[in-house]
Amino acid sequence: MTVQAFFVLSALADGPRHGYGIVGEVAELSRGRIRLKIGSLYGVLDRLAAEELIEPDREEAHDGRLRRYYRLTRHGRDALAEEAQLRAATARVVRSRLGLTGAEPAG
Amino acid sequence: MSGEENLEKRYRRVLRLLPGYYRDTWEEDMVAAFLDSWLTGDPYTDECVMEFCRPTWPEVASVVGLAGRLYLGGAGAQHRNPARSQAIRYAVLAVALVQAVRGLDVLMLTAWSRHLLGWLPAPPPGMVVATPSGALPPVVWYLVAYAWIVSFLLLTLRYYRSAQIIAALAIVPDLVILLQGQFTGRLPAPYIGPWAFWVLLNLAPVLAMTAFQPDSPPAPRLPWLLALPVNYLVVVVPLVTLGLTGNSAWVPDFSGLYCILVALACLAHTPWIRSRRAASTGVWSLTLALLAADAGAYRIFSIGDYVHVPHLISVSLAELLILVVAVALVIPDAARAYAATPEPPPYPQPG
Description:
- The structure holds two protein chains of two kinds.
- By secondary structure, chain A is α+β, with helices and mostly antiparallel strands.
- Chain A has helices at 3-11, 19-29, 38-50, 74-97; strands at 17-18, 54-62, 65-72.
- In chain A, strands 1-3-2 form a three-stranded antiparallel β-sheet.
- Chain B is mainly alpha-helical.
- In chain B, helix 1 packs antiparallel against helix 2 (20-36), helix 5 crosses helix 10 and helix 12 packs across helix 14 (331-339).
- Chain B is globular.
- At the A-B interface, helix 2, helix 3, strand 2 and strand 3 of A face helix 2 and helix 4 of B.
């Protein structure tokens, strides 16, 4: 799973979001390190939809335009949980090797 | 306001770069997201934004990148026509292989000329490895040749982005020499062949390496790795031998050699098409059709180099004819594979 896909799925973990809402949530989750361009976001969303990891939730009218919200599928939730476990395990190993086992990461 | 030029219409114009099937699914959503990134909720400010603001260059670049990946069979497009995407990747690997074989040739000739290959007879007196003349020292050209070997190996070993970066660096010196020749008039007109080489065999494969994505089905490693020494031994060694034994008149130019090799590959592939189901051969037929288009275009553009040598124009046309006849044998199978688009992935409507 690419870093971008991981963060997009993470942005949907606590509820459906529309396209630009995902961009903002990804920026917040990554503490500003990942700022998705819209073209990149829809490349990721297209792939995640094709892999049935996300699906449309609803459409809402906003300023005369329809915003489509996306949510995780059950398969997407499982894939995200598995990836999060893998990353957490890797982080633990790295912290251990760096001698940082006693300290929790800040923030 | 609907008939006037505004930010929404500017975004829709940029989105026309994307394939039609993709826009059908995502255009409205993308436009909404683009506008969300601008609009503030204040009517006066938003009116000004809609009237005067334009898509930013990073946004346009992200759409161009997405379009490139979709057309080249990268992210997302893989689900729509796997045969087409795989054929593009194989064609890129084949062109990278051609460049790597040329690099191996430079490496071996350099080693031979410096008496590093003790088991070979002494090199002919005065033998030098030809490098383009110009502003760049010969060592740059050796590095370029070796860079293509490294890029091909990395591509085969699935380090896709590293391969693309190295190949992108390797094509810069050629561009420098071309621009230098173009603007100083050092090289003779019409000067189309070298540009065609750079575009078709340098720039195109580097851009098309975008088709290699982490989720792409990998190409088999061993056959592609073996193809490098095998092609060197089977193709380059006989040609070098011909050249060194005074028979260089029989050695085709690079463009002609490219045409002949693709034509031979088409002929070798034809019995497979006839003996197997089309689905199993379609990827290779498509690959060969792409390579034939590349080789044919290069042959056509490079004929201009022989404008003062009529008999070489005849030879070039003959090579082109051989290529056209050979590729005609695989075109029907390639067309079947190209048209065999599977059902699009499901995009369930909001429920």
